[in-house]
Amino acid sequence: MPAVKVVERTPLFLKAVVEGAYPSLVNSLRRVIISELPVMAIDTVIVVNNTSVMYDEMLAHRLGLIPLTTPLQSLPPIEDCESGLADPSECTVRFTLQVNADGEVTVYSGDLVSERPDVVPVHKDIPIVKLVKGQSIVLEAYAKLGRARGHAKWQAALASYYYYPRVEVRDESCRERCREVCRDLTNPLECTFNKAMTCRDLCGDKLHVDWERNKYVFWVESFGNYDVDTALREAFRILKRKYSLFLDALARKSSSAAEAKL
User: Fold this and answer.
1) Per the structure, how many domains does the chain have?
2) Which residues does the chain have with pLDDT short of 50?
């Protein structure tokens, strides 16, 4: 039975020691987190007026990279949005941006006006473009649910892991030699497996480095679209659904093969 011990936690970051799981399972979770989690991002921009020095295409690109809060609990499942089962209007949010400069002014992400108060820029102070007196920007932007496998602007979080190192210091002089790489050689949470291996290259046979089988240090960092608890909950839901679809496909394949033999 896999076991998890949380060693560091904030609303947007989590580090834990995972034990008793196969690498394939841990890596599957990592890949779902970095490429499958749904988030809102601006995907379509209708420029009504743009007299700034920035091209419309670059302006739209910048808008798309602004992270938006994404209340998954009040949105349809991403699968329904992708398949068309959900009303498209429930999977999109309209923004407007209208700025007329009376002097030098910087347009920030906070100037975007959303039709939904729960879908807004995560950070209000992301600069979009600078305007001088007489310039203006008027546009409509539409954000939709998407996944990072389609474009990086839909990436909700990063995740990674390393094998839990097991370090044996055979000569105390090695600690000082490796201090710039690892302050505490025997602390797996500070000295990653790769760092320990770097120290082994420095110390030779004075340091032995191994790893514990099926034990890892796993961490997740959210970009702020939602907290890390929501990210993990959604990642497990997606992973569980993938396994169910895979088993169903296997069952159908097996059934078809059996019928063919008859």
Assistant:
1) 2
2) none
Q: What is the pLDDT of residue 61?
A: 95
Of the candidates 13, 19, 42, 12, the one whose C-alpha atom is nearest the C-alpha of residue 166 is 19
| C-alpha distance across the termini of the chain, in Å | 41
Task: For residues 243 and 134, give the distance between their C-alpha atoms in angstroms, rounded to a whole number.
Answer: 57
Tokens 């108060």 identify what position? 117
Burial 118-143 (b: 16+ CB within 10 A, else e): ebbbbeeebebbebeeebebebebeb
The CATH number linked to 105 is 2.170.120.12
| Strand, coil or helix: 113 | strand
* One-character DSSP codes across 118-150: TS-BS-TT-EEEEE-TT-EEEEEEEEEEE-TTT
β-strands 105-108, 39-50 pairing: unpaired
Same domain, 112 and 186: no
Which pTM was predicted? 0.86
| Amino acid identity, position 209 | V
**Token pair in block for residue 236:** 């497990």
Q: Using DSSP, state whether 53 is helix, strand or coil.
A: coil
Q: Look up the domain containing 17 and give its range.
A: 1-35+156-261
Q: Which long-range contacts (CB under 8 A, 24 or more apart) does 102-107 make?
A: 102/133, 103/132, 103/133, 104/130, 104/131, 104/132, 104/133, 105/130, 105/131, 106/130, 106/131, 107/131, 107/137
